[in-house]
Structure prediction request, 398 residues.
Amino acid sequence: MTLIDSKSQAGLGRLHDAMAARVAKGELPGMVTLVARGEDVHVDTIGTVAFGSSEPMRRDTIFRITSMTKPILALATMLLIEDGTLALDESVDRLLPELADRKVLRHIDGPLDETVPARRPITVDDLLTFRMGHGLIMEPTFDPPFPIVLAARDLQLVMGPPDPRTPLSPDEWMKRFATLPLMYQPGERWQYNTGSLVLSVLAARAARQPLADFVRARIFEPLGMKDTGFSISAEQSRRLPSNYMTDFQTGKMELQTASGPAVWTTPPTFPSGAAGLVSTIDDYLAFARLLLSEGTHKGKRLVAERSVRLMTTNHLTPEQMATGGPILGGQGWGFLIAVATAPEEVSSVPGRYGWNGGYGTYWFNDPTRGLVAIAMTQVSDALFNGTMTEFAKLAVNS
Prediction:
């Protein structure tokens, strides 16, 4: 365990004590945290991999990172753009002809056959910024039972939670998705998640190979991310913790079984760039450092500086930020990454960027401080019970 510097010891001690207190109270069985500045890295392992277990969390514990997959998909897309196989402003129709000539609902809660023509095609930029015209509906609740939501569920398109996985191949998924109208006009509104599912199909077609193969060759292997993937070996799967979430009807925290270790030993039919990866804290640090260094890894440039800046710069209007609901929380949005555009709860300096995963993982880079901060557990409650906000505040001040 390497301490960042002597002045940080007290701050890191406060961070450890706060997270250990939450484990002691039974809010989560354990977690792994990381705070890094430059080559100085502090990793802390707290608690166990499951409630009632004696097996400790370890630095190489493998976590289901769910939506922390999205920034990796954004990087893959930027590599394809640098290769010349995609362009930000191009219509997706060239590679996704299923989405040509889109129709748009007249009313978000209306019948599927009451539509108007889309004013323009969906672009690659629309997918990266979640402004394609389809995604989670924030009002009055997440995905209310409107006809468009029920139709997506019936088609097994898995627009929300990552589990259970869709049984559909990418081509079949796209074929079914194309039977639905858009919810809003392309470019009009920020809506979570669907853009990254569509982009998963688009990126694979642009790369002319499965998404899993492309990201392994162009991202994971160059960065040494040996424990990151859409599937892992049986031996690696034994390093997965149990995952939990509170049942809000009963108020009890319950073990979730849809994403057990055996699931991860089989490559998925649809490698989801929305939520499909597992990783370790050190693997994700390699990715985070690549962005913090604006595209270089161990002195070698892997992605253009401009690509990283586009990924980590806000692209939304103030109105789109304001209507992003509690998921966006008033933040800006780069390319599949949240961006703080003003002083906020965690930091008084704008520019912090990152994202979290719905099973209890959390990451941000703070370029002003040269800081990477990552926390990984497998308790979904950690994202909304104050655990990750407390982690972030203490990490920034460590």
